Amino acid sequence: MIHLAPGDPTELIGSEDPTTIQSLEQVRKLYGLDQPLPVQYWNWLKRVVLLDFGRSFQPDGRPVIDKIAERLPVTLLLNLIEMVIILLIAIPIGVRSATHQYSTFDKVTTLFVFIGFATPDFWLAVLLQILFGSQFGWPISGLRHPMWEYLPFWRQQWDFISHLILPVTVATFGGLAGFSRYMRQSMLEVIRQDYIQSARAKGLDERTVIGKHALRNALLPIVTILGLSLPGLIGGSVIVETIFAIPGMGQLMVQSVFARDYPVIMGNLVIVAALTLGANLVADLTYSAIDPRIRVSRRGRR
Amino acid sequence: MSLRVSLGRLGVLAVLVALGAGCTVDPESAAEPAPLVASTKPAYGDTYIDALLGDISSLIPTITSDGASHTVGGLIYSGLVRFDKNLVPEGDLAESWTFSPDCRRLTFRLRPNLTWHDGQPFTADDVVFTWRTIIDPKTPSPYKADYASVESVDAEGPGVVHVNYREPYAKALTSWSTYMLPRHLLEPYVQEGRIREAPQNWSAPVGTGPYRFVSRRAGERIVLTANADYWEGRPHLSRVVYRVIPSQATTFLELKAKGVDSAALTALQYQRQTDYPAFKRAYTKFRYPSNAYTYFGFNLKDPRFADRRVRQAFAHAINKRELIDGVILGLGREATGPYKPGTWAYTDKVKTYPYDMDRARRLLAEAGWERNADGRLVKDGKPFTFEIVTNQGNDERKKIAEIIQSQLHELGVGVEIRIIEWAALLKEYIRKRRFEAIVLGWGTGIDPDQFVIWHSSQQAPEQMNHIGYANPEADAALERGRAACVREERVKHYHRLQEILAEDQPIVFLYFRDALPVVSSRIHGIDPGPNGITFNFTKWFVPRPLHRYTAG
Amino acid sequence: MRGFWRAFSRNKLAIGGGLVVACLFAVAATAPWLAPWDPNRPDVKKILEPPSRQHWLGTDQIGRDVLSRLLYGSRISLAVGFVSVGIATAIGILLGATAGYHGGWMDGLIMRLVDLMLVFPRFFLLLAVLAFLTPSIWTIMAVIGLTGWMGVARLVRAEFLTLKEREFVLWSQSIGASAVRIIWRHILPNAMGPILVAMTLGIPAAILTESGLSFLGLGVRPPYATWGNILNEGRDAIELAWWQSLYPGLAILITVLSYNLLGEGIRDALDPRLRQSVGRFGARGR
User: Fold this and answer.
1) Is the bond preceding C272 in cis, omega lying within 30 degrees of 0?
2) Which residues of C touch B419 (CB under 8 A)?
3) pLDDT tens across B387-399, in order?
4) Which of B208, B248, B285, C207 is most buried, taking the most CB atoms under 10 A from its CB?
5) What is the pTM of this model?
6) pLDDT tens by residue, B402-456
7) A-chain residue closest to C235, CA distance
8) What count of other Cβ atoms lies within 10 Å of the Cβ of residue B34?
9) Candidate from C61, C222, C238 with C-beta closest to B419
10) CA neighbours within 13 Å on the CB side: how many for B548?
11) How far apart are alpha carbons B141 and B213 in whole angstroms?
């Protein structure tokens, strides 16, 4: 696969300084790029299973898995925070728009949803960076203050959180729109169901009906959607991490593409896919945990 | 990425420290006056925060050419010689050096009692080891060519090193500014061809330079601390933090928010965004010609460009002044050849090509290109159209291509532009000679030897004369300039080379852009000169009342 | 069909979206006449001029007219949207139809492929593929198309599963019509509605994706004026020349918004139940 590319990665090591290009042939041999293509591919496949993606083409030559490992926690953390925030905001919004269908609140949130969908995240990121970073003095880029190591413990925590505010805002913006929309839809469908009507007829107060019976059932599809939308969320890290100079997997991916660092590109792709699979699994388990029907049938099987 | 990094830093910090590049000060605006402060007594302490456009790729810069690695490495490591404010070589780890009368033997006398950061003594054996490491075929070093004519390197006791050359080599002394590597730590890795895997390359570099490595967070920062045992004495700034910020736009925002103490400005930032009082109080701006020029090159194997008159016509048709004004807002100077104005090999007594469309048209007409009814140039029924390729990620070159496109359009020449990532550009276009015209740049080192760029023998795919230039007179000048061992004699050959190149215009030399660094005004002791600003970094200090970061 | 129009015409937002989309088409088609300046002609005497009577939306860093570049940029954006969605739809129909009609192991194989593709975050996949290709406007379109067909494939397959048991299909089979003919003449026309909706919602996603890639410097390369490129170039000067960043961003926002409104309108008018299957998160394309 590597040879389909118009650029051998070794060339990136050279710059325009006249002293550099000459040693490229040596470097190529060193990396094993002179081997036949199928051999290269088979060797790669064998090693992927063991999470051995080889070594980066960069002069540091570190194992790809190390490079990914040090960047994985940041991306994971960012995405977890984003997911939590999205749920915390989207669920109430969705429920309220559904229970107050066609109200002003519903219309405003619908508008917000469409605009949220349509706003290019990189554009929003740059605008926020200028507005809040440059004008109001919020952290502009990175994850920590330059002297972070010398701050007292609580200042450290606050400093870290404050660095996350803008990136998380940008990353949640689009997802928030989608989820609140979906929550509204799901809630609307549930409310129309017979058992909700009968619960109301029984004289249960509205709060219990919505909060206990309707919400629970409306949340079920949300869990699935959460699993499905995770690739999109992680994909968004590419833009956010690049603009806010956050050393996560998205930034690593972009840099590796520029550098034609194929082992890192492939390793990144495999790990990200594994993440998505894992998240889907978690979503499935959660689903069965909160879905009464599944639980009942399981009990029945026993 | 690596290109963007190395270019962004070129002439600012990286290459200066590492390769010892040369810069002259623009007399008009060398340094805007630093604000006067009550106390200017050198003091120890404070932290200096610098920005890197990309993460370092290696902590042993000998095996990489990326600018960030050399910026950081330049403070951790040191070489046998270095270059002072005026680009004159001076002893670093070597106390003195002598050439044999035939210039084929170079002897270094090392300073006594030098130590590595881990306390081990630095000796002549380390020098021999460094040389062996670089020329070892298993070491992926881009600097091997510098040592191609070295016959042997011998230690004589712990304090003397003899370097023997097969033939006189003009760049001999310059090449020994290379970073010395610790034999006691790296030898097993080098022997096994695993130097990249040594811990010194990632998390524990050991050098002889003014700063010690403390820690790094990948993609985020690198922290260095002053080396109290540095042979020149402890550097004043206690700590250096490099922040990785992969965008000049973001770096500038950080600069204004005081998140970094220094940055390389773009022309636009320098000219239009930094002239308000608060910025001037907080920062000192510097400006000096960088040691790299940008050119518009041709594939000389293409019959259209093989005709010198066509190249000369293009040189006349391109308004260099307008280009400099448009692309870098006037912050650069026209190039007449491959040497920077002000350096010792430079001469301005060469043929120049003022903007003159009539001359351009006449030259093209002489070469057989006639204007047809539509105003387009035609020869043998074929219109004159070609493609300029340049690399992605460099806004300046993109703009140059766009402006040249519009300027040549007036001549009736059709130009297409293609922008390709660096790796693809090199392999698919440059190496295979599959380009018609290019907009790229060359770095000019301290030594004027440019054999590898212009000599007709250097045209193999891997080599750097990719435009296919061949002129026996230029060959002769290059050969003689390289083998001559006295500067006065070399000057003659390089002046001759510049005359030939100016007449031939194998490429249209466009401009040397200015380096535009800014540094926080609380930093004192900066002494700008032909060698830029960072050559005396260890002398920079912050007067005690101005200390911003007290830690350490 | 009449029911569709009645429902659609009641949806004012969708009509608004449709009108804007129509305008965009008109603008793209007539850009050479509308544009007051040559979008690629630099003028170094007019670097970063603010909006004025001469240059309604100001000039960029080498003195080109931002309005003209935006107008020409609409052509690239629309072309990228259409071609890449066309590719995605073609692949989606082909694979979805094969899976749905054929069933059995073929169905299993194709659906596993779909699952596999969906495991990769699209932006990562795009970047990885782009790293292996020579950049050009065609590769960008192709790659966006090649990574976006899974939704259509699922949709078409689902339609086929329900349609294939209907009488007209069974009857055609009984008189010996070929599979291709049955698919082409009977099943596809009936599945056209959801496909159309998926396409309408796929175009804004493709436009966002392209502009995101261009912003990173990995999309359509200059000197093509695309909205993403203009934004990319404007980033360095954003505090100095807000017009170079604000307008292309707004252009993207409005375009994507209009397509989404139009797409949702068509979907709701066709059959509200389609909400279940089409375009849940289709519109963002990450």
Assistant:
1) no
2) 135, 221-223
3) 999 887 788 898 9
4) C207
5) 0.86
6) 999 989 998 999 998 888 877 678 777 888 899 999 999 888 878 888 888 899 9
7) A126
8) 15
9) C222
10) 18
11) 22
Count of residues for chain C? 286
pLDDT in tens, chain A (302 residues): 222 222 233 333 333 333 344 345 555 555 566 677 777 777 767 777 777 888 887 777 888 999 999 999 999 999 999 989 998 998 899 888 888 888 888 888 888 888 888 899 999 999 998 888 878 888 888 888 888 888 888 989 999 999 999 999 998 887 888 888 888 888 888 888 777 777 777 777 777 777 777 888 888 888 877 777 788 888 888 999 999 999 999 999 998 888 788 889 989 999 999 888 888 888 888 877 776 665 444 444 43
Euclidean distance between CA atoms A13 and A59, whole angstroms: 7
DSSP classification of residue B161: E
**Cβ A18–B464 below 8 Å, yes or no?**
yes
Cβ-Cβ pairs closer than 8 A, B with C, add up to 66
Q: How far apart are CA B504 and CA B498, in angstroms?
A: 10
Q: Name which of C247, C260, C129 is nearest C205 in CA terms.
A: C260
**Under an 8 A CB cutoff, do B247 and A245 touch?**
yes
The interface predicted TM-score of the complex, written ipTM, equals 0.86
Cα A8 from Cα A2, distance rounded (Å): 8
How far off is chain C from B443, nearest CA to CA, in Å? 24
Tell me the one-letter amino acid at B174.
Answer: T
Nearest to residue B513, comparing CAs of B287, B296, B333? B333
**Is A16 within 8 Å of B6 when comparing Cβ atoms?**
yes
Q: Which residue has the tokens 């090392």?
A: B110
**Cβ(A17)–Cβ(C143) under 8 Å?**
no
Residue A145 in tokens: 């203050």
B208, B122 Cβ separation under 8 angstroms: yes
Give how far B532 is from chain C: nearest CA, Å.
25
Residues contacting B247, CB < 8 A, separation 6+: A243, A245, B53, C235
**C280 touching B (Cβ < 8 Å):** no
Sign of CA dihedral A187, A191, A193, A196: positive
Nearest one of A222, A129, A238 to A180, comparing CA atoms: A222
Judged on CB neighbours under 10 Å (0-12, 13-18, 19+), B188 is exposed
What is the chain B residue with the closest CA to C43? Answer: B326
User: Phi then psi for B388, rounded to 5 degrees?
Assistant: -100, 130
Chain B hits for A55, CB-CB cut-off 8 Å, are 196
Q: Picking from B125-129, C191-195, C242-246, which range would have the lowest pLDDT averaged per residue? A: C191-195
pLDDT at B5: 31
Q: Is A234 in Cβ contact with C281 (below 8 Å)?
A: no
Distance CA B483, CA A172 (A): 65
Which of the 8 DSSP states describes residue B164? E
